[in-house]
What does this fold into?
Amino acid sequence: MIISVNIDVDSALFYGLIVAVIFLILYVCFDLNYFLTNIFLITWCKIRRKRVKINETTEYYGVCTTNDLDIYFQHMNNARYIRELDFARFHFYQRTGIYEILLKSDGLVLQTACHVRYRRTIPFLTPYKITTRVIYWDEKHIYLEHQFVTLSDGFLTTVILCKQTILGVNVIEMMNILLDQKNDENYKPDPPPEFEDWIHLNKKSSARLRNGNRCTNF
It folds into this structure.
């Protein structure tokens, strides 16, 4: 009986070690936190979160942890803001029904442009929320506005505009379905004033790059 117990304990330790090694390899080779967060977020939205309308604003909550710190170990690294937007967008797409339509149509979403306006840093261990809303769309793209707001004082620290290119789905038709738009199929929201300047900038940049010109005046 004692030998049997020892064998069971040894086997448990052996399999536990294998699991730990596999987990360590995955953690080193992949950004495991990123994938696990996305899986949890999408699953949680499907199970517990009610659907919101496409013209409403969603809120995703986070906190600045040690993984987010910059080289000074005081506040969130600039690059982490962009990474956190993935979670906010997945949350938005899942709750508004965009993902459901994309999956049915084998559609794909690509981030093709981004404009970031930093106003104040997010210090270590500071909780914040990311609001997400659609500000405009056309046949191929959805334009989102994200806002980082610190919960302690309600300060708007960062504003980010994102251009999402949708492949395999007509965006206007999709938005009409989500809006239940029957009377005006050409309806589009009025974007913020700075949005038009940003779109104009993107068009100029695209035209210059298509012509093979690169900015070298530095």
In short: The chain has six helices and five strands. Residues 1-6 have pLDDT under 50 and may be disordered. Residues 15 and 78 are 40 Å apart (CA to CA).
